[in-house]
Amino acid sequence: MPLSPEAAFERYRERLLSVIYLRMGASLRARMDPEDVLQEVAIQAINSWHTLADERNVGAWLVTLARRKVARILRDQVGVAARDPRREQKMITDLPVADHRTGPVTAADRQDRLALLSEALERLAPAHREVIMLSRIEGLPAKEIAKRLGRTENAVHLLLGRALKRLQEELNPKT
Known about the structure:
This protein is an all-alpha fold. It folds into two domains: 1-87, Rna Polymerase Sigma Factor, Chain: A (Orthogonal Bundle), CATH 1.10.1740; 104-175, Arc Repressor Mutant, subunit A, CATH 1.10.10.10. The protein is 67% helix and 0% strand. The longest helix is centred in the middle third of the chain and has 20 residues, at 58-77. It is globular, with a radius of gyration of 17 Å.
């Protein structure tokens, strides 16, 4: 049975939300809710489902849509003090507005953990931050990361190891 866009989106919802949250950065999150961006990605995925060549790549395809959406928003929002409510439009979709699988306490806990992770990632060197985002958040294999970063696969493994160690130090500072 072929995978529906709604089912695929629900399967990868948490991963997509993490990618969006972390890629947005604190300044953009202050003006825009990552859940709003997630809904826009869902609508885009449904509307462009026919462009997906192989359903086995649906996770990577959805992450790419999310990354591109955040990049467009960042490009469009640079220098903008706030969103212009006159330009906002209502989006019609069959997707649920809220995630009914979790309660408010669980959602708040998830937001707190994502905020701590985001702050720790921002304190890392750009190369460390990028390799962690590509590997652990977006789920890309080392071979693909090596191509994107212009490094060897072995260099990516070494960089990732150093980056994860540094992230652990940021998340668990010695007192």
